[in-house]
Specification:
Number of domains: 1
Number of strands: 0
Radius of gyration: 19 Å
Shape: elongated
Strand content: under 5%
Largest sheet: none
Order of helices and strands: HHHHHHHHH
Low-confidence stretches: none
Structural class: mainly alpha
Length: 198
């Protein structure tokens, strides 16, 4: 499996002297595209109805659960990044920690899979999932991840989303109702002014 992982990595990883524009483009995808996820979640909460807010909360919890699972996996099975074993070419600064699974993709896909599993929000979830593909490519191209790190992220993301949706009722009672009450109290002037949804 590791041999396949390495072969796929060399197929995607940048050459020793890549085009500067391509590297800049890949860096933008690798580090900046992920910010669309919190923006989507915040937008969905501030300008959504109750159904949408619950979906945004579930997606957020799924993302956080996925990241927590990654930390546990890294403790149990630390896997070096390509540059830590002098493999390929690296064009993105990154701390020398475990590469498996990818945190970026876990967050993106945990959110997207959680939305996909709810019929009403499936189109948005598919769009977020597709946005994760160029992020995955960029992080391999720039030499900070292996391809199987992305497969691991997908598996963690599916499990995180599934577990969160299984506990939906508890999540609504424990988290959503107090959060909505706090939001309604803090944002009351903006709600009254029509700037935010009630």
């Amino acid at each position: 499996m590791e041999a396949l992982n390495h072969r796929l990595f060399f197929l995607i990883n940048a050459p020793a002297h890549p085009d500067a524009l391509m590297v800049s483009f890949a860096r933008g995808l690798a580090d900046e595209l992920i910010w669309l996820v919190p923006l989507l979640l915040i937008y969905g909460w501030l300008w959504g109805n109750e159904q949408r807010r619950i979906a945004m909360l579930e997606a957020t919890v799924a993302g956080l659960a996925g990241l927590l699972a990654n930390q546990v996996i890294a403790l149990v099975w630390p896997h070096p990044r390509p540059f830590m074993v002098n493999m390929g070419h690296t064009f993105l600064r990154h701390v020398a920690d475990s590469s498996f699974p990818s945190d970026h993709l876990t967050l993106i896909w945990s959110v997207s899979f959680c939305l996909i599993m709810r019929k009403h929000f499936r189109p948005a979830g598919i769009a977020v999932a597709l946005a994760g593909l160029p992020v995955a490519w960029a992080r391999i191209y720039l030499g900070v991840h292996f391809p199987l790190d992305m497969v691991g992220a997908a598996l963690v993301a599916v499990m995180s989303a599934w577990l969160v949706l299984r506990g939906e009722r508890l999540l609504i009672d424990v988290c959503y109702r107090p959060m909505f009450a706090a939001y309604h109290l803090l944002a009351k002037p903006l709600i009254r002014g029509g700037w935010l949804n009630e």
